[in-house]
From TrEMBL:
<dbReference type="Pfam" id="PF06101">
    <property type="entry name" value="Vps62"/>
</dbReference>
<protein>
    <recommendedName>
        <fullName>Vacuolar protein sorting-associated protein 62</fullName>
    </recommendedName>
</protein>
<dbReference type="InterPro" id="IPR009291">
    <property type="entry name" value="Vps62"/>
</dbReference>
Amino acid sequence: MFELLGGKMFGCECFCWRKHTDHQYPLPQPQPFFLPSPIPEWPLGQGFGTGKINLGELEVVKITEFERVWSCSLLRGKAEGVTFYKPVGIPDGFFCLGYYCQPNDQPLRGYVLAARERVASSTEVYCDYDSDTDFPALRKPVNYSLIWSTDCGSGCGFFWLPNPPLGYKAMGILVTDTQDEPDVEEVRCVREDLTETCEIMDTILATDANTFQVWTTRPCKRGMFCKGVSVGTFFCCTYFISENQELEIACLKNLDPSLHAMPNLDQIHAVIKHYGATVFFHPKEDCMPSSVQWFFKNGALLYKDGKVNGEPIDYLGSNLPSGGTNDGAFWIDLPRDDNARKNVRNGNLESAELYVHVKPALGGTFTDIVMWIFCPFNGPANLKIGLMNIQMNKIGQHVGDWEHFTLQISNFTGELWQVYFSQHSGGEWVDAFNLEFIEGNKPIVYSSKHGHASFPHPGIYLQGSDKLGIGIRNDTARSNYFVDSSTRYQIVAAEYLGGVVTEPCWLQYMREWGPTIVYDSRSELDKIISLLPLFVRFSVENIFDLFPTELYGEEGPTGPKEKDNWVGDERS
């Protein structure tokens, strides 16, 4: 057991630990998180789910066992504090690249990578750098620089930056509970051409005056074709970090062109069967999803600029213009007949399925399974102004609504790591321990009424000003209306597999899936303002500033391939 000693420096109340037999730890210690059900044995493949990933000259493993080094309770931030960990259980021949830290108010579920040099076979070719070098991929640091310490005696927190040899990069920070400089054998630096730049992400610890801060990190360049690999380490410093400033640590770079750790087609199907989310729609939803084929078959029309009448769309979308860019020359609309139009607006839940795009993430160490869902119509917005809730007549409506969520899978183990919930013009990544699950390891996605944005939990989410309580309501709830994506899905793209997946014709349609609509927002909002009590009325101009931009007009939404996240990273 341990005795608590206190100290303070730079506005951060810090704690040292001394072994003792009669005291408990005063700070809560995170416990490991496990998915509700065991991970199955995946179908045979190359490197997916094998525990090791080849990055070219390096082979890496994910370390999830840790030994606590030091904990700190914050004066500014969450009182539960932060804990810094040393990775343990590193396999023989692999080397530590840096330490790990996380807040104490969440389960212990992080990782850091450990690496070793690979000996390439005579047939292997590495890309993007000149491999004709006598310098090893890994080297010990020359020594360490002390970044910050609590200066409160033996056993406190000391933060060390490895000083790499010339031509090498440090991958992470070390933490000790004594002032003795770490041994150079403790960590390895990586040859510079095997690394990429990284950036700070979430703040984990900050003193009152920001004289010392700790962040998580991620590669600067992220997306389907980017090679940056997150090491899982943290960065800290005592100075201001400006945007685009290069850090003193780096991330790894995957130079294996085969991306051997990505799942093959059989493994993709197995992963979706095991993790496919159940999407619940609101019990009062009247704009349901449908399959794309149902939408075409039930009267959707293709319009061309300059022509009055639209033409029917083939069941497979084979007569849609293919490729190019969204130049406004074509768009899709509902049938002209009133009854047919109403039928298509309502959607068809029985035909609905998820359209799956599988792509590499973080240099092929993770797989993003992007699940797209199509709704023929997006219903009118529900506005919240203080305690008032007002259903709009037309504002927010548009034809053709594409929404998505993304399952991020660790290629080391095949474990579901986090889920991205797309929400109109943005979204959020949610760790697995903050998800709701149904039937084993299948997460739940809640689709908002009319807008179809994705959320991790039921409730009311406001898009606008939370502080003033003004914006668009996103209402979510569980109901009898749902789609199980583990069985109702179609894989439409997986570029890294070559020609294994045949992309449907409609996926190549790069124009708008609905006509451009301009709303008479001022007229409808003027009526709302007139209902407000005098003491809470805003000017029309100010109220317009508080509402999301989609209230003023809707361009017809484009299809999945025209979205930034098709190739790039998710927006959050």
